[in-house]
Design a protein that fits this description.
Helix content: 40-55%
Number of helices: 5
Largest sheet: 8 strands, mixed
Shape: rod-shaped
Radius of gyration: 75 Å
Order of helices and strands: HEEEHEEHHEHEEEEE
CATH superfamily of the domain at 182-318: Mannose-Binding Protein A, subunit A
CATH topology of the domain at 182-318: Mannose-Binding Protein A, Chain A
């Protein structure tokens, strides 16, 4: 189908007075009124009737005006499109710039915050290291103090044990005997070995030591006392030779050979207390009595020895 503008163009291109005028349908006269109609062939045509005359306008000018109008509209549309594109691009750039600037500022601020947080963490770490070092030094000091306290505790425990032993000894003697003395019935006994195993004396010096302590060399009055003294010195030995492990007792025959007298002037000694073959006054020089421990018989524990020999001794005193 041919468009309306095409028909107008074709109509405008045909010469005036051609066969198309014969095919046109006449209309009545109307003054100053423009009529537009289609002819029988379907073409657009207009004419003016002025003062009873038909004046046919040239369609060529109309088409030209329409074309110019189309061109103007096209130019206007293109310009408008270009302007819209520019405005859109400008808007995008502005938006991008607006979006980029806060992002850059945010990143800058965030980077500063990270650096500041890092510095704070570094300072915190340094403080923690210093505190750890200080705490370690304090732990070492406390460990040294604790070790010293442990040594003191051990010393105190040892002292406590000794005190308890002394208390037991005091309880055993009921306070009737001096420290270091043992009690039997109503008498107190001092064994020099217990004070010092390295000190030995002759008979005369041993007796002098007992007197200095307020006592004298032991005088054995009963079998019970004989057994007690003998059993007490069982573990007080410094030599494998029996004669070197004896203790001086308070009996002698220095004044009269063969007459054994106790220092309390009591004469006589039960013969069963002498070891077999004793006293024998070997070499005519054995005038002082000695007691030892015997595993064979608790009664046969005495012999006579040279008074100048250095050995241990036993003191005896009445309890308080």
């Amino acid at each position: 189908m041919t468009s309306f503008s095409g028909k107008v163009q074709e109509e405008a291109n045909q010469p005036v007075g051609s066969n198309r005028s014969t095919a046109m349908e006449k209309v009545s006269f109307v003054r100053n009124v423009s009529q537009v109609f289609f002819n029988r062939a379907g073409y657009f045509q207009s004419r003016y009737k002025t003062f009873g005359k038909d004046v046919y306008g040239s369609n060529r000018w109309v088409v030209l005006c329409l074309g110019l109008l189309n061109v103007v509209l096209l130019i206007a549309a293109v310009s408008l499109g270009i302007n819209c594109a520019k405005v859109k691009e400008s808007s995008i750039n502005v938006t991008h710039s607006s979006a980029t600037q806060p992002t850059s500022e945010y990143l800058h601020d965030n980077h500063s915050d990270v650096i500041e947080a890092g510095e704070k963490l570094k300072k915190t770490l340094e403080t923690a290291i210093k505190n750890h070092t200080l705490l370690k030094e304090q732990i070492e000091q406390k460990k040294s103090i604790n070790d010293e306290n442990q040594r003191q505790v051990e010393t105190l425990r040892t002292e406590k044990t000794n005190l308890q032993a002394n208390i037991s000894a005091l309880e055993g003697t009921c306070g009737k005997c001096l420290p270091g003395w043992n009690i039997l019935n109503s008498s107190c006994y001092f064994f020099s070995y217990l004070e010092s195993s390295a000190v030995k004396k002759n008979w005369a010096d041993s007796r002098a030591d007992c007197v200095r302590r307020g006592a004298d060399l032991v005088v054995i009055d009963t079998p019970e006392e004989q057994k007690y003294v003998s059993d007490s010195i069982q573990n007080m030995k410094t030599s494998n030779r029996l004669w070197e492990n004896g203790f001086w007792i308070g009996i002698t025959d220095v004044h009269s050979e063969g007459t054994w007298t106790w220092i309390n002037n009591v004469t006589g000694l039960n013969p069963r207390y002498w070891m077999d073959g004793e006293p024998n006054n070997h070499g005519q020089k054995e005038d002082c009595g000695v007691i030892v421990y015997s595993s064979i018989s608790p009664w046969k524990t005495m012999y006579d020895g040279p008074c100048h020999n250095p050995i241990y001794w036993v003191c005896k005193m009445e309890s308080r």
